Amino acid sequence: MKLIDVSVPLDATLPTYPSNTPFTLEPIKRIARGDSSNVSTIHMSAHAGTHVDAPRHFFDPGTGVEALPLEMLCGRARVVEITSRRIAADDLAALDLSEDVRVLFKTHNSRLWTDPAFHGEYVGVTESGARHLVDHGVKVVGIDYLSVEVFKSPGAPAHHVLLGAGAIVIEGLNLRDVEPGVYDMYCLPLRVVGSDGAPARVVLRRS
Q1: Would 27 be classed as within a structural domain?
Q2: Which pTM does this prediction carry?
Q3: Structural domain of residue 127, as residue ranges?
């Protein structure tokens, strides 16, 4: 069984969304220093790298990441390639999403992972795009950079539309080497109680 890992590595070269805690791995114990074992402490945002957004990210009474239904995060998923600078309803109108509950967007974003600097010009989903997805029954939306939201969108409309409708958002995918098409997806976020998001390992398998 061949699995395609579409998670990004957590290391010092990982881009960080502005104001979020960057990823660092701090050595606490090291055998080379005479300690009995190697032990490290991880410092990072709940929204670093490949991660899942829970409704609590934008709604105080919303579900935390530990309560997200895993059956929605595992199953048939369609990878769709978008070449425009924004993902709006017009960009999605020609797509037949009638059989798709999970949609992952492959854009030029996937090429940005080689640069540790944050790029604010990444492709995001507009409010109209988010509404189109919700109206067509999409329950899981994945994007290949640190946010599904167009950078600095007032009021974060895409997040509010998607999370407000009960959809789950997966951010920080790397789809550069993934061909558009249908896959089996396995996305397992860490079970962090009460958190607005959590890191996840996401793999695809060709259906």
Answers
A1: no
A2: 0.97
A3: 4-8+46-206
